[in-house]
Specification:
Number of strands: 21
Largest sheet: 6 strands, antiparallel, barrel
Oligomer: single chain
């Protein structure tokens, strides 16, 4: 739950009951959205500054993610700033309420006189803030305030988030690399690498009974199109438990494994079922091939939306759409009709357990964090995911499996293609552009559309 300091301001000469009623309504609407509020109102410009001092004292020692300055009427700038200066390092919302109509006339408390006096002041003082104003006769901007509060909390929480990575730079790819110093400085997450040898050492200590428990309790939820090799099931269960133990001990929110040049090449086992179990049973963000910034993007989107933030990669660009899919797995949350798997082999790789589930369709947001010379950018686009035509990736044993995927309709494929940053993009359902944009604005990340 997002914690917010809710500060309601109004001028000392405005009828107190009006300011209180407006603040109460705004407070109630925010609570309906799910915010946990520490509320102080009315705060006026009384000559002895009793209200100002009371507000400061009421917030001392309290922990909150955002400050909501609710302007319920005209208020001299100094009365607000004397409070906000104590919390200048916390993101803020400058929210102007509005007047109302009585019969054939409009009644106002000059809310936007207060906000327009403050907006430039907040900017000049270097505050990180969003300016929001209500309009008479239209719904209040409560949701807009809430979305910014969610982004503020995500920024705060990600400052101490950790992603685990077994190995590094799978297939010697360039697009999956990252700069640790700038990532910590600008966004916050830590990517901790560990050796695949540690996974193997832990795997050797997993008992058959522990493996069977995973098969019986977790993998039994999957629909098998044909029987898998029992040894493959045991390996999947054992390696899942080995990686899970590492994640539990070190507090990882996300995990990536060296895939092609690691699990497949050295251990002879495609890691798709390991990722599935980690995503579905442990609620971890998962992505293959040591995709560093892909993993960070997943954590960002999960904190902002609560969704699993799964990845898809591109197979074809078309005139009005892209074909995006995965050659291994999707989390159960993204599957339409549950998880369906089958044993399959690709090229010279050993047979593994392949996820062939259908991907949920609908409106979606597709994005990826990228890095250039010390600066971070978020490439983001809205689309509509539809069921793809029958397609296959050459190289699979015949009959080739229908891989999980979507045809994603875009307004401008050419513009997207000319800005594409990697083969992996992170998918969330719905239009999440506002909350992602809020997150990026708070941290100074430029958005590419």
């Amino acid at each position: 739950m997002v914690k917010a300091a809710f500060l309601g301001f109004g001028e000392v000469n405005t009828p107190k009951e009006i300011i209180v009623k407006k603040c109460q309504d705004a407070e109630a609407n925010l609570k309906k959205e799910g915010l946990d509020l520490i509320s102080v109102y009315p705060i006026t410009d009384d000559y002895e500054e009793k209200d100002i001092n009371n507000a400061i004292k009421s917030l001392e020692g309290k922990d909150f993610d955002i400050v909501i300055c609710c302007i319920a009427g005209w208020i001299p700038t100094h009365a607000v700033v004397k409070v906000t200066e104590h919390f200048r390092n916390i993101p803020m919302v400058l929210w102007g309420l509005c007047g109302w109509t009585e019969g054939d006339r409009l009644v106002t408390t000059a809310d936007q006189a207060g906000t327009t006096a403050l907006r430039k002041t907040f900017y000049d003082l270097g505050y990180t803030f969003k300016y929001v104003y209500d309009i008479i006769g239209l719904p209040s901007k409560t949701k807009t305030v809430y979305n910014y509060a969610v982004a503020a909390k995500a920024c705060k929480d990600l400052r101490f988030a950790k992603s685990g990575m077994a190995g590094y730079r799978d297939m010697n790819l360039y697009g999956t690399l990252y700069d640790g110093g700038s990532l910590k400085r600008e966004i916050g997450p830590e990517i901790e690498t560990f050796e695949m040898l540690e996974i193997e050492q832990r795997y050797q200590k997993i008992t058959d009974a522990e493996k069977q428990a995973v098969i019986d309790n977790a993998m039994s939820k999957w629909k098998f199109m044909k029987q898998a090799n029992p040894e493959s099931l045991k390996m999947a269960a054992g390696y899942y438990l080995a990686v899970k133990a590492i994640c539990d001990e070190r507090g990882y929110e996300a995990i990536s494994l060296k895939d092609v040049d690691g699990m497949k090449k050295l251990l002879g086992f495609p890691p798709a079922p390991i990722f599935m179990l980690l995503a579905d049973e442990e609620n971890l963000c998962t992505i293959p091939e040591n995709d560093s910034l892909g993993s960070v993007t997943q954590m960002i989107i999960k904190h902002l939306t609560g969704q699993c933030a799964f990845y898809l990669e591109f197979y074809e660009f078309m005139q009005d759409r892209v074909l995006a899919g995965v050659p291994d797995y999707i989390p159960a949350e993204a599957a339409d009709g549950g998880i369906t798997v089958m044993p399959a082999a690709f090229g010279e790789l050993s047979e593994g357990i392949l996820n062939v589930s259908k991907v949920k369709t609908g409106e979606l947001t597709m994005c990826r964090l990228t890095y250039d010379d010390g600066l971070y950018y978020m490439h983001m686009v809205k689309g509509e995911g539809i069921t793809p035509r029958k397609w296959e990736e050459a190289g699979w044993t015949q009959p080739a499996p229908q891989l999980p995927g979507l045809e994603i309709l875009l307004d401008d494929v050419e513009n997207f293609a000319q800005n594409v940053m990697c083969q992996h993009y992170i998918i969330s359902y719905g239009d999440n552009t506002e909350v992602i944009e809020n997150f990026c604005n708070i941290l100074g990340i430029e958005i590419i559309r």
